[in-house]
Amino acid sequence: MADPSPPNHGSGDIKDAYSAAEALPTRRDSMKKRLSFAHEDMQNVQDGTMPSTLAGVVPLTAEGYSIYSNIQDGKASIEHQIDINVVDLFDVQSNKEISLEEVMDGLRYVMEYRIKGGRFPSLDYDIMKRLADGLLMNMGHAEKKGRFDQSHALSEDADVAFQLFGEFLLEVQEFRQAVGEKPVSDLRHSLKLDVRCGAGSTVQEQQSSVALIALLTTIYPQFSDWKELVKSDGQGDVQRCMQEHADFVKAEKMPEMGGVILAPQALCFDRRIKRCLKMYRTSLETGLPSEAIPALQEHYGKNVLPQPPKTSALKMIWAQLTDFMILLLLAVAVLMAATKDFIPMAVLLIVVVLNTIIGFTQEYKAGKALDALTKLSVPKAQVLRDGATSMIDSDELVPGDIVILEEGESVPADLRLAEVSQLEIIESILTGESVAVNKDPKEIRTLTRKLPLGDCKGNAFMATVVAKGRGKGIVVRTGRLTEMGKISAAITGHTKVMTPVQRKLVMLGKLLVVFAIVLCAAMAGIKIGYHHPVGESLKVALSLAVSVIPEGLVAVVTVTMALGVRRMALRKAIVRTLPAVETLGSVTFICSDKTGTLTEGKMGAAELWTSNGLKYGFTESTSLDPNKGDVTLASATGEAPEVLGKTLDQMPAQMLISLMVSSLCNNSSVVMREADPTAATTIPVDVEDADLETEKEVVVPGAPEWKGIGDPTEVALVVAAQKAGFPKSFFQDLGYNRIYEQAFDSERKVMSVVYSAPLEGQPSDHFEFVLAKGAPEEILNRCIGYLPTVEPAAVASPLDILKPGQPELTQPVTEGFYDHVSEASGRMADEGLRVLGLAYKRVLVNGGGVSDQGIGDGLDDVNKMKSEKEAVPPSHLQTNVDILTASNVAQADDDEEEEEIPPGYAESDFVFLGLIGLIDPARAGVQESVRICKEAGITVVMITGDHIKTASAIAKELGILEEGGRAIKGEELDLLSEQAIAELEPFPNVFARVSPDNKLKLVTALQSRGESVAMTGDGVNDAPAIKAANVGVAMGIAGTDITKQAADIVLANDNFNTIVEAVEEGRRVFDNILKFIVYLLSCNCAEIFLFLLCSIVNVDLPFTVTMILWANIIADVPPAMALGVEPAEPGLMNRPPRSPKRGILTITSLAVILFQSFSMMLLTFGVYMWADRSPEHLDYAHAEAFTFLTTLQLLQGFLSRTMRTSVFRVKFFGNRWMIYGVMISFILMIIGIYTPGFNGVLNLVPVNGITWAKVVVGCIIMVILSELEKLVLRRTGWTI
């Protein structure tokens, strides 16, 4: 180690820098002796001895803990809290759910109330090393000082990080060691002392900088020259600050920061109640004092949800009217008014009005999701303040308030429950689960600040409803930081992007405008060049502009998608936004929940493997009816399984005790719901409706049904025991009563219960036993023996195994047995089963005749004495809040130590029984739907909260996860940024143990790589991801109202097959939109090319302006509308999805348009040039050209029914609307030609049979050309 002599500060003697020059060496030496890592003390740490602390710090125990701390458990709690914040320090840049301010508040609170003052001078080195790195990384954050000022000021969070760096340096030995290992260049770069002492810095920044320089130069010899810690151009500013704030050289501490230091808002599910009361400076008996509320509200803010942006109805209408396609239609209407064609103008204006009404309605409905959020706030809350209960406005609540919950009330904020009495809360608004959740105030130990909402048994969340019982809770989160507030902010803050069809139609409209202007200007220029009248030439050009712009496009698109909505509704997919119909057709990723969507959503016991190696199965395991299904014993020889009897003497001992564990170590039940005479059940029957084969439902009277109450996994275990003939009531009738429970938590992964049972012949005495279930590895690790095969003669009844005084039948757990169980567990998991281990143990009690064995009653001789702890002096400047709430803090005991568990009830020394495997079977047809998706080029991704092995097995069964595929866990997803997720190769097909919060991250990551994503969900937590997805899909049965309102599509049957059918319908809709766009542009371009060619060769134009407009009216809309309901072409789902980046028209489709338009144009031009165009016969030539081209256009409507397939391979009457549309258009054409008077208005004259013969020949040629075109497309495989 370095020489302990006083360090040399280098050039520019530090005596000149500090005003107290002569006193400094003495001061420095004094601090070196009292700071643990000054010179020789650094060696002490490496040798394992504990160095000294600052003067005035309380003494330590031999283990290195302050006598004020609650020894090891308190230390572990602090390290746990710091570790959570350290993880967030490194994740804060990439995780939008975390703010640096929130992390700094958490660390500052831990420092002020848990560490400062010598409470815990020694903490885990690895945590401290990462903390030092995290603080250094975040103390340089800057923000611009002004709009025109290019300089940057350090942010407030950066100042807090700097302050905490100095305070941890003073308080924690391992932190000092970690800092001492840093290169001086790293400290110079991160500390930014030149900025903190430069122009524009605050007094607080300057004082903190001087104090930290004094600490660093004093503690570490390698940092003794302060100039090495500062950039050369800033050393002058630093020296000036040291002269101005010399007092902080002698202070041996960091300057106090202003502001109130209060507990950060957090769920605190891992904190005990008394610790929470101290954190929020409150009391269960008196609550907060009213005088402290204003300061707390100023610090925490009001308890109100983020308000969604309000858009007025007028703005919505204006947005619809300023849409590019609508402006295009209005421009065309103006052009028609300019040519005095008022009837077509009126038709266009009607289209504009209808489209505006439809668009406004869709946007208004979409905004309902935001409006619904404002209704979730609870108006009133029953709160305890000043020792009295009163009703107040819920927006007045602050963290620390004590809220009283009664049956039927809504929870006004996020609470940490402190007292409960049979409290059950319905959290369906958040989770989608309609079953009430039993609440338990016991803390849950976990290694992360994030825990699935369903596991937060000690919390109550805003807007959830108390179904039963009552409780008292501490407000721990309010307003925007509540679970509902975060969801509200995510929904209101995410803007919905334009769908592919909307973007493509806008682009098409712009291209058509340019195309129309160029061609019409060219034609008008040619006409004028041939010395035709300018006015007439411009009028014809305007008419052609009307011709080339498909004015029926918006109307046809809207009607086509609306018809698609109807067809999808018949398939149980309810569409809430019209564009979602087409967007489905371009989906490249379907991210689907597993439970209830890919699977039946019903857990059932599939296999029970007992410790003697036998396999039992269950028939009809997912049926809740206990009268349906049996238990079978698998044959070792491959024969048919043996059906077991349902009596006590017919059931093997291992099987019976295992079923007892399944039934009694359980908080769920299955009950029969009585028949409701007013209810009805729907039964599907096959019908054929138009072009769609679907199901129709008939209604039958209501019938009774079995209903599972509680966790689906536990319900499945109850059902398994019932099907075997041993329900809970069987054991209750024997006098078995539960007397103790240790609930399951994510850390232990075990649940255990203790039952008491009477001893035969000794009514006053009883025996007890413990039953346990949980993760197989956790159960097995807690076992010392296992139950081998029990011969019938060994015991009078299988239940006697549990009684005290019976012969010991167990065998010790060996390494070979451990491997045997591990192999069985792995096999079951690989088969897609959720595996649980089962175990038991006897608790020998008084009256059992074996008390001399020393085990005793589980409740005997429990030492509940707690160590008294001295009060710790305040370590920060007291505020008004500190003073007002001091009595609450003083009366709250600290209870960091673990709750004492009766020795006999400890989860250890178990006897292993076996493994039970549960399965949520795949839905019928899902495997085929996944195969269809793959052929269609769509990647299916499974998202589940299930175990990764179980999820992977189900995914393999369904074909989602193939050889070489990838599955990752949610905890791995948490560590990746959106960019890193997007770059995963191969992209995972299975995301297991994923929380709803991860879904939004997954959606944005996929969208960033150009994918079109459909996302499913049911709970409110899923709403942000559903809203952000290209197509949000909500569950109609399990989904919440907010989720449905945020979604584009709602599945009435929660079935994945319905999503695939909806994708097929979306492709059909886009295909039909493309067909009528190609049809409209082909017909309209044929007209403009015909006029352009006639202008070039300088012949009279074949149509008058009136004929052009009449042709557009009769030939455009009816056939195009009919194409919108065209049945899907064969092989539709064998094509890859259309890229969202691809335009609505490809090079191939443009080539098709040109080919069709040139075919019609050249045939018509030939007929027109062949006709007698002399002045006296010119009107007939015009009528013949009009008849010929219009008939070809109507024929093209038939030919456009397919893009690749031969028209002769489709049913002629497959689209009866096409027949009706063409007939209507043809009749209108005949009326216009042959009706006297009306034909004069249109400048038409009747045509003879020769003209019709020409029309027939032209149609035959057109059919041949069309078939040749489709043959080329089929052979080349070009994308249309």
TrEMBL record:
Record GO terms (molecular function): ATP binding; ATP hydrolysis activity; P-type sodium:potassium-exchanging transporter activity
GO CC list: plasma membrane
GO biological processes: intracellular potassium ion homeostasis; intracellular sodium ion homeostasis; potassium ion import across plasma membrane; proton transmembrane transport; sodium ion export across plasma membrane
Locations listed in the record: Cell membrane
Membrane topology: Multi-pass membrane protein
Domain Cation-transporting P-type ATPase N-terminal: start-end pairs: 267-341
Domain of life from the UniProt record: Eukaryota
Residue ranges crossing the lipid bilayer per the database entry: 317-336, 342-360, 505-528, 540-563, 1076-1099, 1144-1168, 1180-1199, 1219-1238, 1244-1265
Major localisation: membrane
Alphabetized UniProt keyword annotations: ATP-binding, Cell membrane, Membrane, Nucleotide-binding, Translocase, Transmembrane, Transmembrane helix
Tagged with keyword ATP-binding: yes
Stretches the record annotates as Disordered: 1-20
NCBIfam families reported in the protein's UniProt record: ATPase_P-type (TIGR01494)
Protein family membership: Belongs to the cation transport ATPase (P-type) (TC 3.A.3) family.
Protein name: Cation-transporting P-type ATPase N-terminal domain-containing protein
Organism field: Entomortierella parvispora
